[in-house]
Amino acid sequence: MKEIIAIIRNECLELTKKSLDAIGVKGVTFTSVIGRGQQGGTICSPDPEGTLRRDVCVHIMHQRGLIDNPEDPKYHIPVEKEFELGFLPKKMLMMVAEDTEVPLIVRTIIQINKGEHHGDGRIFICPLADAIRIRTGERGTKAVV
What residues contact 44, with CB distance under 8 A and at least 6 apart? Predict the structure, then answer.
């Protein structure tokens, strides 16, 4: 048996849950966590103040006859700004699976969460020595089925 721990973006949680359910994974624990990885807790996000400043400048330039069409899409590219948050909110999924089920579970999590960006997440696979169902005392595979 293995324990699979996956840390994913918050916005991927629902689709990940549905996908795991579709492949037969029933026992999953989800928790909200915060952390940082390679991106160091920095995100690039629209800067509403910068976008507003740019829109005001476009309006003034149009009034002065410096530009013909203020609605031209080239004047309306969102202003991006990096924000240093320190730690970013994520979701952590924990589940136990038979060794033979691990590759399918891992592929499914990767398929749903891979966005080609820093912060897409991590998956950790840990050996599991034993599992015990408290109510019945069952051990091993019987305790997690």
Answer: 80, 81, 82, 83
Q: What is the pLDDT of residues 83-113, one digit of tens each?
A: 555 677 889 999 999 999 999 999 999 999 9
Find the domain containing 130 and state its range.
2-38+86-144
**Tens-digit pLDDT profile for residues 1-31:** 999 999 999 899 999 999 999 999 989 999 9
User: How crowded is residue 3: how many other Cβ atoms within 10 Å of its Cβ?
Assistant: 15
Instruction: Specify whether 51 is located in the same domain as 118.
Output: no
Q: Are residues 34 and 50 in the same domain?
A: no
How many domains does the chain divide into? 2
Alpha-carbon distance of 79 to 76, in angstroms, equals 9
